[in-house]
Amino acid sequence: MTRAATEGLSGEGVGLRRVERFPIRRVLLVLVSVITALFVVIGSWKTLTLPAGRGYSAGAWRDFLVLGVAQGAVFALIALGYSLVYGILRMINFAHGEVFMMGAYASYFFAAAYGRSGFLDRSPALALLILFAVAIVVSSSVAVLLERVAYRPLRRAPRLVPLITAIGASLFLQHAALGLFGAQTQGYPRPDALKGSWSILGVPVGRVSALVVLVSAAMVLILSYFVRSTKLGKSMRAAAEDQEIASLMGINVDRVIMLTFAVGGVLAGVAGVLFALRFQFVHYSMGFAPGIAAFTAAVLGGIGSIAGAALGGLALGVLQSIGPALFLSGFNVPSPFQLKDVVTFSVLVLVLIFRPGGILGREEVQKL
Amino acid sequence: MREPRWLARVALVAVLALVGAACAEEAPPGGGGQQGVDCATVEFGCVEVGADEPIKIAALQTLTGDAAALGQDQVYGLRLAIDYLDGSFDGTPGQILGHDVELVEEDEQCTAEGGQAGATRLAADPKLVAVFGTTCSSAALGVADTILGEQGILLISGSNTNPNLTAEGVHNPFYARTAHNDKIQGAVVAEFVYNELGARKAATINDESPYADALAAVFRAVFEALGGEITGFEKVQSTDTEFGPVLTRLAEGRPDVLYYPDFPQVCGLVTAQARDMPAFADAILVGSDGCASKDALDLAGDAAEGWYRSGPDTTGFQGGDFYQNEFLPAYLDQFGVDAALSVFHAHIYDAFNIWKEALEKVAIENDDGSLTIPRMALRDALFQTSGYQGLTGTITCTELGDCATDVVIAIFQAPGWPELDPKAEPVYTDTKSLQEVAEQYGV
Which chain A residue is nearest to residue B66, measuring alpha carbons? Predict the structure, then answer.
């Protein structure tokens, strides 16, 4: 491309052409990545060799890891929603964070009632199943409605249009929740059975964290089975590959797209309950920050790929939890966690320099 | 389509010309102050209030968002102050020097951007004498205080507590406050945990707001001056929900005390997540007046048990007969809400009254019934306020604009917070002045 452009220009000197050909961008990128990588390696080394009393105990690293995995598992579930929709429509559904919020909020009303009546503590398993069911139904309904009302009429429009619509839908849902439920923060009850921690292989793990990781892992497995082996899943993959040819093969693409949104909504609903159980609150703006984080996770892992979204979520969660302490403490940064986002986005840039499609970029893994 | 647009432009130019002419005509009389004030040369000039015109003031407060209740409370406080100008809370507003008082309300949204937008709109009004606000320090610091100060408009706050607003070199000469300076709150908390609870190691967490950052910094400085050790301090975002990693890091220092002067969401989540960790299961957890909300307690759930929080002492007000028997009933009667849970209406009420006293000292009553108010003289008179007996105590302004001198800070322990139980008694109170804090700890 560069060569064609320069050769097309007549009367340019040979020297200029050589300068043009010198891959200055590439060299700069490699330089940036080498510096960042050196910073990370030296920082980690310095942190790990800090004298006792100033460094971190093994217990702290273990806690960082457990917390990071639990946080990452929720990111992964939300990221899957972004990734599925992107895979099939090539659009970023920025309202996905609000789909997540709606599910969590809907389950809150049941959770609060069960908490008051004692049902939540008496039969926690049944109560949790109902909470998940409520969140799943509400989140996937919101997601399907969103697709039907806000995105389908614009499917043939230029790509910027649905993007702006998505931002508008996100604001609409947020303010609808504000109007319906109010601006106050609501405390989400946690059943007694989930208080405290379990000892897993001698490592104390918070019961909620364990539940979050287990449920997320199960959801990812079910999803990959669904997409890989069921007829509906196969039609989703076909539509993601090429909508026109898929419809020639007798697949109702509109229905498949609706199904994709519904599946994303299911995952967001599950994530909503897990998030609410973990942090014990719901709020009308609670979807925004996890939504952005999950979008980042989807890009990091390779947007459009299921394994990528799951891996990206985990990587982001662990990075946010361990990264600041590991990379920055060695340089005597007084409050390393205030640079949490700097750390995560530096790593994101580093990954994208070498793999523009994300860790499991599109070239490597089949979409969907 | 073309012609109307062209016409509109001509019309606009014509209107502008008319406005310009009107302004030009108005300017010279403004310079005609009598009785030794030459409004044309004196710095910031004068406000001319015509014979039947009201004196214009504004409330620049948080009227939307999470902190809206705090701003609304102060708007009500100001309305009551105007009502009481005639000596009674009868719902009919009184007058100052024979002029009505007009109150303009402006929202600052508890952000620097909101403060800038609101202050810019207000500063454009040449008739505006004073602004009462802001609610949040972030809306004032370097934004509203500067924008209004450049026009010589006083900004008097009943709820800004950030120390930087009245710090040497940062303070804007037209900024004053009747709220306490957070240096006092930070010092009282540090003394409480060090002397009363015997804590020797402490850690702090604060969000990005100037309020939280400064309060945590004062606490650390005083705690170290007392002989304690700061084992770590962390900064978080007010939108964060996951504090596990931050707490894990701070737990490595084995602090006896965790101090987090933040806003309700961060306060509540930190409390819940800290109590979940073995290292903080028995630690002393302390929040500040920013945590003072039912939301924070809801978020913390069972973990709130034993949680301390500091704040201005509202129980101290209960002694005042005027406040109890006249002010509070009038508040409930006129606005339909119970004021007893907040304190800012009282601070802003005092702010209005010291401003009124200063105004009465310097305003020149012209023969035609109009008022000439020299801005610089009004500012000087306000800053000379000394020994005024207000609702919140004795008010004496310093050169740097701190008018609340002796401040009573109370510490409450959950579930005995006034937010849950209006009759809750503090577990500790202390009265301090800024001067004492500065001399003892050098902050």
Answer: A183
Which residues from chain A sit within 8 angstroms of residue B269, using beta carbons? 279, 281
Closest by alpha carbon to A200, among A209, A191, A192? A209
Chain A residues touching B248 at Cβ < 8 A: 60, 63-64, 67, 325
Asked which of B187-201, B253-267, B292-306 is least confident by mean pLDDT, the reply is B292-306
B148-165: average pLDDT: 91
Chain B residues with beta carbon closer than 8 angstroms to that of A321: 242, 244-245
Complex confidence, ipTM: 0.81
Contact B265, A283 (CB under 8 A): yes
Nearest CA-CA distance, residue B96 and chain A, Å: 39
Amino acid at B167: A
In angstroms, the CA B418 to CA B416 distance is 7
**Per-residue pLDDT averaged across A99-113, rounded?**
94
Pairing of strands B99-107, B95-96: antiparallel
Asked if A67 is an interface residue toward chain B (Cβ–Cβ < 8 A), one would say yes
According to the model, what pLDDT value does residue B12 have?
55
How many contacts, defined by CB atoms under 8 Å, are there between A and B? 83
**Interchain CB contact of B264 with A (< 8 Å):** yes
Distance from CA of A187 to the nearest CA of B (A): 5
Convert A307-335 to b/e letters by CB count within 10 Å (16 or more is b): bbbbbbbbbbbbbbbbbbbbbbbbeeeeb
Q: In whole angstroms, what is the distance from residue A164 CA to residue A170 CA?
A: 10
Residue B315: per-residue pLDDT? 64
Contacts made by residues B220-225, CB under 8 angstroms, sequence distance 24+: B221/B186, B221/B441, B221/B442, B221/B443, B222/B186, B222/B187, B222/B190, B222/B191, B222/B437, B222/B441, B222/B443, B223/B190, B223/B193, B223/B194, B225/B440, B225/B441, B225/B442, B225/B443
Is the backbone of residue B36 left (phi > 0), alpha (psi -120 to 50) or beta? left
Give the rounded percent of residues in chain A with a pLDDT score beyond 90. Answer: 35
Whether B244 sits inside 8 A of A63 (CB atoms) is yes
A67/B242 Cβ within 8 A? yes
Q: Most confidently modeled of A133-137, A149-153, B94-98, B424-428?
A: A133-137
Q: A344 in contact with B at a CB cutoff of 8 Å?
A: no
Nearest-Å Rg of the Cα atoms of chain A is 23
Q: In DSSP terms, which residues pair with B433 in a beta bridge?
A: B406
Q: Which of B246, B264, B298 minimises the CB distance to A186?
A: B298
* pLDDT tens digits for range B274-315: 998 888 988 999 999 888 888 888 888 888 889 999 887 766
A279 touching B, CB under 8 A? Answer: yes
Are the Cβ atoms of A335 and B241 closer than 8 angstroms? Answer: no
Q: Does A312 have pLDDT greater than 90? A: yes
Residue A90 pLDDT class (50, 70, 90 cuts): confident
Task: Label residue B78 by pLDDT band (50, 70, 90).
Answer: very high
Nearest to B245 among A67, A190, A280 (CB): A67
Query: What is the pLDDT, as a whole number, of residue A11?
Result: 45
Q: Are the Cβ atoms of B276 and A190 closer than 8 angstroms?
A: no
Residues A272, A101: contact at Cβ < 8 Å? Answer: yes
From A276, which residue of chain B is nearest by alpha-carbon distance?
B241
Nearest residue in chain A measured CA to CA from B252: A56
Q: According to the model, what pLDDT value does residue A68 have?
A: 93
Predicted confidence band of residue B35 (pLDDT cuts 50, 70, 90): low
